[in-house]
Write a structure and sequence with these properties.
The complex is a heterotrimer of chains A (210), B (424) and C (164).
Chain A (H helix, E strand, L loop, with lengths): L1 H24 L31 H4 L29 H42 L12 E7 L5 E8 L4 H14 L10 H8 L1 E6 L4
Antiparallel strand pairs in A: 1-2, 1-3
Helix pairs in contact in A: 3-4
Chain B lengths: L1 H14 L2 E5 L7 E5 L9 H14 L3 E3 L17 H6 L4 E9 L5 E9 L4 E9 L5 H17 L8 E9 L4 E9 L6 E6 L3 E6 L5 E6 L6 E6 L5 E3 L7 E6 L5 E6 L6 E6 L5 E3 L7 E6 L5 E6 L6 E6 L8 E2 L7 E6 L5 E8 L2 E8 L6 E2 L6 E6 L5 E7 L4 E7 L4 E3 L6 E7 L5
Parallel strand pairs in B: 2-3, 2-4
Antiparallel strand pairs in B: 4-5, 5-6, 7-8, 7-30, 8-9, 10-11, 11-12, 12-13, 14-15, 15-16, 16-17, 18-19, 19-20, 20-21, 22-23, 23-24, 24-25, 26-27, 27-28, 28-29
Helix pairs in contact in B: 2-4
Chain C lengths: L24 E6 L8 E3 L10 H7 L3 E3 L9 H16 L5 E6 L6 H21 L7 E7 L10 H7 L1 E4 L1
Parallel strand pairs in C: 4-5
Antiparallel strand pairs in C: 3-6, 4-6
Classes of the chains: A mainly alpha (210), B mainly beta (424), C alpha+beta (164).
């Protein structure tokens, strides 16, 4: 009996310790103000005036690859806060400068990536639009969504209708447009990462009422 | 720890796919160049002419004039895409007609996509002696299907009635012809009126109303054997036959109750089921593509309007479908069940109109004064109908893409066209 | 007999998965056409057996109607009076009432309209104590017009019920 009770106690304490560890790992014990916000875009840095941005910005770059490529305005800093000039030791400043330069480069990179995505997206859209023969005498506000899988050489290897417009002629014309294009020859210019992350699987939404 | 948190979130963000929106398209027809087919047979030119008119009649193609052809490639390899791009041509068709011993002609054709710079179809059609136009229709259907993705209807048939007025009386003839009006053949000749011809779902039998016994009776006739069967033996009139999509049932209008009512006859066990029970006129029944609903014309609101009964529901109260205008009749379903086509009267003109189920207004399709008896093609893209005035009657057609055509006029008053199903 | 070389191309539009390994469509088909049998029929109309003298009276009986209507006007009722009297006197007389319609509108609806017109006439006659079994009611719809022009006058002449 006694051994069993001991065993039970031991298990209980073991559970508590493991739970505590687990909760610690997922940040349960951290209070609000210690969590830094995750920035979706790198902040434009003004060397003289600003607080030095912390290292969290490095991780935020991966989150740039979002659904729709949108513009966000750079974070602006009010002139009043410029009065506070932090003291920088000479050693600190060299490290900080490198950091700052890296961040500038990364900022340019992400802009460039954004531009590339926009550019290739426009090419895809233009190709499909010039292949699409829209049927006449159809209802208003028809939307039809087609999901396509493209291989790294730009060839469409899978087409599926994921959302019908309710009008078979409309659906069919959209499928036909995608089939006619068949290959995007510029895909070999796209970086492998970008292809894998963005252009491998795309959804084409036919929405002429917009 | 923050890194850990971010890593968990990352995959979710990446699973959202890129969504691209297409907002513009062309409403122009496909531009096709048909290179004169090769072959020594004298019929080669006719074959090409027939297939060209098939494609033009569909309203979805622009066929380049022969004079405008920059070159005459004799095979795919000789095609220079840049040259055709100048003319803005989307597709090129090449073909060959070969004489086969004892078995008619054999046609081979290839379709080349100018934008893809590639051949996209290579086909062979074996013809039957004496059926030259059918060979062309099979080719034009093949081209239509590859380019549009929709099944073509050039190789289908239409039924219609012709009245030939003599000095003292009239002859009535029920014809079957190709979808382009050619190759007319007599199915029935009578000295009494024939109305409401209808195809069986397999297109091997027809049903029609004949007045040969002195009053309106429905007959079923086998196209191949000519065997006729009188539907329902009773003393009263019967009219408006329509086959169910599975071919087992025939909806009819019976008059035994003192006014026109719709019944369904089981062709196997001859059971008769009554569908409507109203003192007003209920007629012109027509089946939905899956056979679950019946569309019909009823005068119960005071003037002819279209109603629908859902056969799968226990409470089969008819639902009214048309509210615009004071005459809506002879309705039939689009084959993809997206709407109905019918005769609509607006300000004294009878027109053919279309109404989608998810819209609450009517779309007129034709413009003359007395358009009647519309019939929809099996691919849902074309509607034939009769234009009547008192001196003549013609069969005309309108496509949903907006093109119109008239079938070659035969003498007499042609009316009541009915489109067959797919025959290929 | 179907040619065995026939190859059928199937299409499904919704949820279509296209693996375009080879983008050339290769097909082979044979033209197929049913043979058609042509039939000719001649009608066999039965003569009604009315005594000669009554035929003269009946030959003129026609009742007219308004557009899309099957109601009897007072004028029509006047015309029908002589017929009902004749039938009451002579119980052997049987009549056929044929309804008609003008050409406007659809044929089947017009057939039903003609039928209603004939029924209206029949209902009146039956009200005068004449057995319904002595009446044959039918409709020709717009198929047997009296007048073939396309104007109101012509149409008015066609909207009728004829009694023979």
């Amino acid at each position: 009996m006694q051994t069993r009770a001991n065993y039970l106690q031991a298990s209980f304490f073991s559970f508590l310790i493991h739970a505590a560890l687990f909760l610690y790992l997922i940040g349960f014990f951290y209070s609000e103000k210690q969590l830094r916000p995750i920035l979706s875009k790198p902040v434009t840095v003004n060397i003289i005036v600003d607080d030095l941005p912390n290292k969290n910005i490095k991780q935020s770059e991966s989150t740039k690859v979002l659904k729709k490529v949108t513009q966000t305005s750079p974070v602006t800093i009010a002139k009043d806060s410029a009065l506070e000039i932090p003291k920088i030791s000479s050693e600190g400043s060299i490290i900080n400068l490198e950091d700052l330069l890296n961040q500038e480069l990364e900022a340019l990179d992400s802009n460039q990536l954004e531009n590339e995505i926009n550019q290739y997206s426009s090419l895809i859209i233009n190709l499909i639009e010039s292949a699409w023969i829209k049927p006449k005498n159809i209802q208003e506000n028809l939307i039809c969504d087609i999901k396509i899988k493209i291989n790294s050489r730009g060839r469409i290897i899978n087409i599926s209708l994921i959302q019908s417009s309710g009008n078979i002629r409309f659906d069919n014309s959209a499928l036909q447009a995608v089939k006619r294009v068949e290959t995007f020859s510029f895909f070999n210019e796209i970086k492998k990462e970008t292809y894998e992350d963005v252009f491998k699987n795309i959804v084409i939404s036919f929405n002429p009422s917009k | 720890m923050k890194k850990f948190l971010i890593l968990i979130l990352l995959p979710n963000l990446l699973f959202a796919e890129l969504l691209l929106e297409i907002t513009k398209g062309s409403e122009n027809p496909y531009r096709v160049a048909i290179i004169p087919f090769q072959g020594t047979n004298s019929s080669v030119n006719i074959i090409v002419e027939v297939l060209k008119s098939d494609l033009i009649r569909s309203g979805e193609f622009f066929i380049l004039d022969e004079e405008m052809l920059l070159s005459i490639p004799s095979n795919i390899e000789e095609i220079k895409p840049s040259e055709w791009k100048l003319l803005n041509i989307d597709f090129i068709v090449l073909g060959n007609v070969i004489d086969e011993e004892n078995s008619g002609l054999k046609a081979t054709y290839q379709i080349y996509d100018v934008n893809k710079k590639n051949k996209i179809r290579s086909s062979t059609v074996f013809g039957i002696p004496g059926k030259l136009r059918q060979l062309s229709h099979y080719i034009s259907d093949g081209i239509y299907e590859t380019v549009t993705g929709i099944k073509g209807v050039s190789a289908t048939k239409i039924l219609y009635v012709n009245e030939i007025i003599n000095s003292t009386d009239s002859d009535y003839i029920l014809y079957v012809a190709d979808a382009d009006g050619a190759n007319e053949q007599v199915l029935l000749k009578s000295s009494e009126p024939i109305i409401s011809p209808a195809w069986s779902p397999d297109s091997k039998k027809i049903a029609y109303v004949s007045f040969e016994t002195g009053m309106a009776k429905v007959f079923i006739q086998d196209i191949g054997t000519g065997e006729r069967e009188l539907v329902l033996l009773n003393d009263n009139q019967i009219s408006s036959p329509a086959w169910s999509p599975d071919g087992k049932l025939l909806s009819l209008t019976l008059y035994q109750d003192g006014n026109a009512e719709i019944y369904i006859l089981n062709l196997l066990n001859k059971n008769l089921t009554r569908l409507t029970k109203h003192y007003s006129i209920d007629t012109e029944s027509s089946w939905s593509p899956k056979g679950t609903k019946i569309l019909f014309t009823s005068g119960r609101s005071g003037a002819p309007q279209l109603y629908e009964i859902d056969l799968t529901k226990f409470n089969i109260k008819p639902m009214r479908l048309t509210f615009e205008g004071n005459y809506n009749a002879k309705g039939s379903y689009l084959p993809n069940n997206e709407g109905i086509v019918f005769v609509h009267r607006s300000s004294n003109q009878f027109q053919i109109a279309l109404k989608y189920f998810n819209e609450n207004f009517i779309r007129p399709l034709t413009e003359s004064k007395m358009d009647e008896s519309p019939s929809v093609s099996p691919n849902g893209n074309v509607i034939v109908y009769a234009i009547t005035d008192n001196t003549s009657g013609m069969i005309a057609g309108v496509t949903l893409s907006g093109a119109t055509f008239v079938l070659p006029a035969t003498s007499g008053k042609v009316r009541e066209p009915a489109w067959s199903g797919f025959l290929r | 007999m179907k040619n065995n070389n026939k190859l059928i191309i199937a299409y499904s539009f919704i949820g279509l998965f296209v693996a375009s390994c080879s983008s050339v469509q290769v097909t082979e088909e044979a033209v197929y056409e049913d043979s058609i049998q042509s039939i000719e029929v001649s009608s066999n109309r039965s003569e009604s057996s009315t005594p000669m003298e009554s035929k003269a009276v009946l030959a003129n009986a026609t009742v007219y109607f308004e557009f899309d209507s099957f109601n009897l006007s007072t004028r029509s009722i006047q015309a029908l009076k002589s017929i009902t009297e004749l039938m009451q006197e002579n119980s052997a007389i049987e009549i056929t009432i044929a309804g008609h319609a003008d050409e406007r509108g659809t044929r089947e609806y017009n057939l039903a309209l003609g039928q209603r017109r004939a029924e209206s006439v029949a209902d009146y006659i039956v009200l005068k104590n004449i057995s319904r079994s002595r009446l044959t009611i039918k409709s020709y719809g717009e198929e047997m017009p009296m007048s073939s022009s396309s104007n109101e006058r012509s149409w008015a002449r066609n909207r009728r019920a004829e009694i023979n």
